[in-house]
Design goal:
848 residues; alpha+beta; seven-stranded parallel β-sheet; six-stranded mixed β-sheet; 19 helices; 27% helix
Length: 848
């Protein structure tokens, strides 16, 4: 136990939540008659489409779905439309999402604060509903009556229909182009055609999720028939109502794929109204190499038998008997991935498991004190004549694989007991390069968010790698080498900024409830440059290959950046730039397949950064267990373990060490750096214990909607006599239920506010943007001050608030709060002792 351990806040005081004043943007909308006349042609097209489909249904040998997915392109937002849809028979809500900005025109434009027209673009949404012909005619009837001046047309519950009509920019069917938007399906099909061989091509069809099982079955049969007509087959179907997910894994012969690429809109499959998206199969791929570095083996580590796993690694198959892993892992392989998974190809799973246990081997850190539960989800695949890749199998839907794996671990399957029900952290160093961040949350991220909340698990996820970044640099190797290291950092900074839309985080890194990790260009090696091998950027900067944010709905993503290793930039034979992707240093030192006396190698990327944060999470767990046993005599409640780890891993994060350098490289101000640095670089060791000048407290609670909790931090210190630097760091973490069909997505929003006196004890906000920090499930802020201020032994107040956002919830939402207050060294008061003494006086001692 440290001399000055973390301490717990007393039970918070109950209160109502703070209200936030909404920002109102005035938008000019067209008059009712103008809107009616403008939209009439679109309604006529839809009426004709319904009539034609009725004929098709009569001629079909199977029960084709009579509905259409209708898309309402809306200026602004109409929240009441969701309620209205529920009141109309024949309408079914499907989803909403952000649209591309709309250009201002004569019908729609903003009005600025001076009352003048503004030509800035208008934001909007797409509302997608499923409708039959009768429901659409009912909508048109209501709209006709309203524009004719009838009163009381829209009764209670139907006003959302009126409002959505006044905001409609366009209304249309969900079409063939929508089905390939944002999914890169055409590119995926085209790349498969470029490969030699006659193998059929697998891909995923994501259906509109329908609430009724009968309707889902009709949709499945309709699509299956069209797949069979093209000579293909259905491999798998998956339905997960909790995340509004219905998908089919299918494969088509190459001749059918060629038809889809060349004449997409003429193929009947692309016109099936039940299809939401065509998606490539999950493309998480890791190239296996075997040129590991010979080095002496370490002595076999002590076993951890009889101890429950705290962390799990979902990855490739590790080498179970590797001297560094033996006795420290529990491999659960119910799908028998081990068969045909040769040891020399067990690269990624071995390295990620090694990093979870030890961290970077060059750091010489102690191994974690519990075993690692490993579930293989990757398999080796032959690509070409001489290349093997570890990848997500393309004969299974990855969403289903991940769901089964977590469910088996936490509650068991097929009547068997749970395999590791006390696990609190899952490392997922897997990212899909064909599923970059989009306006709809990916199915994998939705699943992770649902599972995280249900089982109270922290998913630690790699942000994804973009090794193609070098292709955006229009310089020769010689010219790039001639730059000093700051100049190279600036080149990468500008290239990343200019191409950010192509370098976004990879699914499932946009997860709301997970902790997403980007990579620093940093490790514990120190090799020298050569004529053909040079550094890309300055050591400690964000790695050029790391994916960047922001995330879904501008959530801060990645959350943290951590050691991702370095690789040299090498000179190609024609004088250009390429990565020197050998398994030799530099990089993160990991366990690897071995022959003779080898068995360790060097790795590079966001996978390594995430796995090392997982290692730190296991260490934090031990610290927290000790704190709670010492303070309360009890273990941590299961509801709080994951969020405590999430907060503790983040609490020491800041931009201090590299913020100015990143600002110089990107040209952004320091206050805009959360899209390049997230919450910053964590200093986890600093959070594990306090000092004379720094005290850290942990608060726990659970809030229902519209409620709040008040924590009081006593500061019995006189700050009035001299300039004294002081800093307050507050980190709030929680897990939210989700509304998978809503663009707002997050059902519960929790946030904190601080009251530090009328004149402000810590008035200056550092690090992240204050609006951005409230958008996810992790709010991390740093406040500073140094001016003299009369404090009079006051309390600093932190209030945690809860409100309902996307979907209804009745349960109280557990949260945790880390609060650190510190003063500059040399202060002549033992701040830790003064604060803890006051806290102890406030803790009620129960009567015997």
């Amino acid at each position: 136990m440290p001399d000055r351990p973390l301490i717990l806040f007393p039970t918070p005081e109950k209160a109502d939540r703070e209200s936030k004043t909404p920002v109102v943007i005035r938008t000019k909308l067209p008059p009712t008659n103008r809107q009616f006349n403008r939209l009439q042609p679109s309604f006529n097209v839809l009426r004709t489409a319904f009539e034609q489909k009725a004929v098709t249904i009569q001629q079909s040998p199977i029960g084709i779905n009579p509905d259409f997915a209708l898309v309402f392109e809306i200026i602004g937002t109409v929240d009441s439309f969701y309620t209205a849809v529920q009141h109309v028979d024949g309408l079914e809500w499907i989803f909403e999402k952000e649209s591309e900005p709309f250009a201002a025109d004569e019908d729609f434009y903003h009005i600025d604060r001076h009352g003048q027209r503004s030509d800035e673009a208008l934001s909007g949404k797409l509302y997608c509903v499923m409708s039959n012909q009768q429901a659409m005619l009912q909508l048109l009837s209501l709209w006709n009556r309203y524009q004719n001046g009838e009163e009381n047309v829209f009764q209670r519950g139907f006003t959302g229909i009126r409002d959505v009509f006044t905001h409609i920019k366009n209304i249309r069917k969900w079409g063939a182009q929508d089905r390939i938007a944002e999914t890169h399906a055409i590119e995926y099909w085209r790349e498969n055609l470029d490969l030699d061989g006659d193998s059929p091509v697998p891909f995923e069809i994501e259906l509109f999720f329908r609430a009724k099982e009968e309707t889902r079955r009709t949709a499945f049969n309709t699509i299956s028939q069209e797949v069979n007509v093209l000579g293909g087959r259905v491999i798998q179907e998956c339905v997960l109502s909790e995340i509004a997910y219905h998908a089919m894994l299918v494969e088509l012969p190459r001749v059918a794929i060629e038809s889809l690429v060349n004449q997409y809109e003429d193929i009947k499959l692309s016109q099936v109204d039940d299809i939401m998206f065509f998606r490539p199969t999950c493309q998480s791929v890791f190239i296996s190499k075997t040129d590991t570095e010979p080095c002496p083996m370490q002595a076999p580590p002590l076993g951890v038998e009889g101890v429950d796993p705290v962390v799990a690694v979902f990855d490739g198959m590790p080498i179970q008997n590797h001297p560094l892993l033996r006795g420290r892992i529990i491999v659960d392989d119910p799908d028998d991935y081990a068969t045909n998974y040769e040891s020399k190809y067990r690269i990624h799973g071995t390295s990620m498991t090694s990093l979870a246990i030890y961290g970077d081997l060059n750091r010489n850190d102690l191994p974690i004190t519990s075993p690692v539960y490993v579930r293989p989800i990757l398999r080796p695949k032959q690509v070409g004549l001489d290349s093997i890749q570890e990848c997500v199998p393309d004969d299974k839907l990855f969403v289903d694989t991940l769901h089964r794996a977590v469910k088996r671990m936490m509650e068991g399957e097929n009547g068997e007991n749970a395999t590791a029900p006390n696990t609190k952290v899952i490392n997922l160093s897997v990212g899909d390069p064909v599923r970059q961040l989009s306006t709809i949350m990916s199915p994998i991220a939705r699943l992770i968010d649902y599972l995280a909340y249900k089982y109270k698990i922290l998913f630690i996820i790699s942000a994804g790698n973009h090794e193609e970044i070098l292709s955006y640099i229009n310089q020769s190797f010689a010219d790039f080498k001639a730059l000093n290291i700051s100049g190279r950092s600036n080149v990468f900074g500008q290239v990343i900024k200019e191409n950010q839309r192509n370098l976004k985080v990879l699914a499932p890194a946009e997860s709301l409830n997970g902790l997403t990790i980007g990579a620093l260009y940093d490790d514990f090696t120190n090799p020298e440059e050569s004529d053909r091998l040079i550094w890309a950027v300055e050591k400690g900067m964000p790695s050029p290959i790391s994916a960047y944010g922001k995330g879904y709905r501008s959530i801060i993503t990645p959350d943290l950046f951590y050691y991702g290793g370095r690789k040299f930039v090498r000179r190609t034979f024609d004088g250009n730039l390429d990565w020197a992707l050998s398994n030799r240093e530099p990089g993160c030192k990991v366990a690897a397949p071995y022959e003779n006396d080898s068995g360790q190698a060097y790795s590079f990327g966001t996978s390594d950064a995430a796995a090392q944060i997982t290692h730190e999470a296991a260490k934090c767990y031990d610290v927290l267990e000790e704190v709670f046993l010492n303070e309360t005599g009890e273990h941590i409640s299961n509801d709080y373990k994951a969020i405590l780890l999430k907060a503790m891993l983040t609490h020491g994060a800041s931009w201090d060490s590299i913020g100015d350098k990143v600002a110089a490289a990107t040209g952004d101000s320091v206050k805009q750096l959360c899209k390049w640095l997230g919450n910053g670089i964590p200093n986890i060791g600093r959070v594990a214990e306090c000092t004379k000048e720094r005290v850290t407290l942990i608060g726990l609670g659970a809030l229902k909607r519209e409620k709040g909790d008040i924590f009081k931090l006593p500061l019995p210190v006189d700050f009035s006599t001299r300039l004294l630097k002081r800093k307050l760091t507050v980190t709030l973490a929680y897990l939210s239920p989700i509304a998978a069909d809503k663009q707002a997505y997050r059902s519960a929003q929790l946030w904190f506010t601080i009251d530090d006196g009328e004149k402000g004890l810590v008035p200056d906000r550092q690090n992240t943007e204050w609006q951005a920090v409230r958008k996810g499930t992790l709010q991390h802020e740093i406040f500073t001050g140094e001016s003299p201020i009369v404090w009079n032994d006051n309390d600093l107040i932190i209030k945690v608030n809860c409100k309902q956002e996307a979907g209804k919830f009745r349960e109280a939402i557990p949260y945790c709060l880390f609060v650190s207050f510190e003063v500059a060294e040399g202060f002549d008061v033992d701040l830790y002792t003064e604060v803890t003494t006051k806290i102890r006086q406030r803790v009620q001692i129960p009567n015997n």
